[in-house]
Design goal:
By secondary structure, the chain is α/β, with parallel strands linked by helices. 39% of the residues lie in helices and 24% in strands. It has three domains: 4-137 and 303-338, NAD(P)-binding Rossmann-like Domain (Rossmann fold, 3-Layer(aba) Sandwich), CATH 3.40.50; 144-299, Dihydrodipicolinate Reductase, domain 2 (2-Layer Sandwich), CATH 3.30.360; 352-436, ACT domain (Alpha-Beta Plaits, 2-Layer Sandwich). Keywords: Amino-acid biosynthesis, Methionine biosynthesis, NADP, Oxidoreductase, Threonine biosynthesis.
Length: 440
């Protein structure tokens, strides 16, 4: 059978990895796909650099639309990134009857509903395994492997940059800004790390997983997003003393009145496997009603790990290229006319438990006033840790840290309780609040 022909838009880190892995393992891939898969055309603004990667056997152009217009190209891989030109090119490729493979989580999290609808109308596939957790096949697991399950919740470490930073802060006792500079020096963090450290990248990925898990449209604008920039070495140390580790988690959960979709730092019990995922690695926990808890672990970024996912999508398309469109796995796991309108809950309605750190005057009655406010709000306390003033502020210090772990409560209730505690004259600094996830 004639090899399926692929056009590649953008041959940076992931694009070059895709080309090299496809070349290196071409016979293995052909045996699995049932036909050859060949990248025959590449578009990149830096034509000379692209040609140095692919050699003379592949046509290299500087115009992505020339790839889309080529009638011999069956699949277009979009690796340009971003929301702008990438969206236009993906929609043009779909309109031209090309299947699309993309690693662009930002594009799909924001414009996925429009893109998937266009692909369904045209009878082509948009595959995006590489958009979430790099080389970990979590999209296929959710769409196919766990299809018998009613998914209860997903919790993932899905940004390697922030996990590296948190691991270093814990191991070395350093504050965020110091470790961020080191992460940039080592190449784990971009020169502008905003999308990573503010949780946006993880929220893009969580949005896609949420849509697949619960059969709802992609709704990035409904996600609650909080990064790691305000975490201190003290909080990581206190969490450790209480038997927890702090991780930036992407969480989506089925609740009684809607779907939770949130990204934020969370205390996770140190005994959980996911709490021991260190460095730039990724891990995703999925709880299904039939299967129980499953864990997926591996490299969430990098040239060849991400290429692994891109090529898996190419193989899927090669296998299903001639199949009736109605028999293919739906983009978001559920049939398009069976998508749910269950709402994504605002953060104020989410129920979880909390770690609170209060910098307070070292005087009698402070703990009683604080716990009285929590009791008045109906918030149950799980544990209290009060440090000696000398430990916190040095000899002769007149302030100390009060750490409280709570049981589950509604976020809106906790917001009001924190505001009331903050108003106490004995509370000397803004209260630190970190959510706690048992992941049981």
């Amino acid at each position: 059978m004639k090899p399926i022909q692929v056009g590649l838009l953008g041959i940076g880190t992931v694009g070059s990895g895709t080309f090299h892995v496809l070349q290196r393992n071409q016979e293995e891939i052909r045996r699995r796909a049932g036909r050859g898969i060949e990248i025959t055309m590449v578009a990149d603004l830096d034509v000379e650099r692209a040609r140095s990667v692919v050699g003379d056997q592949v046509q290299v152009v500087n115009d992505a639309r020339a790839v889309i217009a080529n009638p011999d190209i069956d699949i277009v891989i979009e690796l340009i990134g971003g929301y702008g030109v990438a969206k236009a090119l993906v929609l043009e490729a779909i309109a031209a009857g090309k299947h699309v493979v993309t690693a662009n989580k930002a594009l799909l999290a924001v414009h996925g509903t429009e893109i998937f609808a266009a692909a369904s109308a045209k009878g082509v596939m948009v595959a995006f395994e590489a958009a979430v957790a790099g080389g970990i096949p979590i999209i296929k697991a959710l769409r196919e492997g766990l299809t018998a399950n009613a998914i209860q919740w997903i919790a993932g470490i899905i940004n390697g940059t922030t996990n590296f930073i948190l691991s270093e802060m814990r191991d070395k006792g350093l504050d965020f800004e110091v470790v961020l500079k080191e992460a940039q020096r080592l190449g784990y963090a971009e020169a502008d790390p905003t999308f990573d450290i503010e949780g946006v990248d993880a929220a893009h990925k969580a949005t896609l997983m949420s849509a697949i898990a619960f059969g709802i449209p992609v709704q990035f604008d409904k996600a609650y997003v909080e990064g790691i920039t305000k975490l201190s070495a003290a909080d990581i140390r206190y969490a450790e003393q209480l038997g927890y580790r702090i991780k930036l988690l992407g969480i989506t959960k089925r609740a009684a009145n809607g779907i939770e979709l949130r990204v934020h730092p969370a205390l996770v019990p140190a005994k959980r496997l996911i709490a021991n995922v260190e460095g730039a690695m990724n891990a995703v926990m999925v709880q299904g009603d039939a299967v129980g808890t499953t864990l997926y672990y591996g490299k969430g970024a990098g040239s060849e790990p991400t290429a692994s996912a891109v090529i898996a999508d190419l193989v899927d398309i090669a296998r299903l290229h001639t199949a009736d469109a109605a028999q293919r796995v739906p983009h978001l796991a559920f049939q398009p006319d069976e998508m749910s309108d269950v709402p994504v809950l605002p953060m104020s309605q989410v129920v979880t438990s909390y770690y609170l750190r209060l910098s307070v005057s070292d005087e009698a009655g402070v703990l009683a006033r604080v716990t009285g406010i929590l009791a008045g709000a109906g918030i149950s306390i799980d544990a209290v840790l009060q440090r000696e003033a000398d430990e916190v502020g040095g000899e002769g210090s007149t302030h100390t840290d009060l750490i409280i772990l709570t049981h589950d409560t509604v976020e809106g209730t906790m917001d009001r309780a924190i505001a009331e505690m903050q108003a106490l004259p004995t509370v000397l600094a803004p209260i630190t609040r970190i959510r706690k996830e048992e992941l049981a």
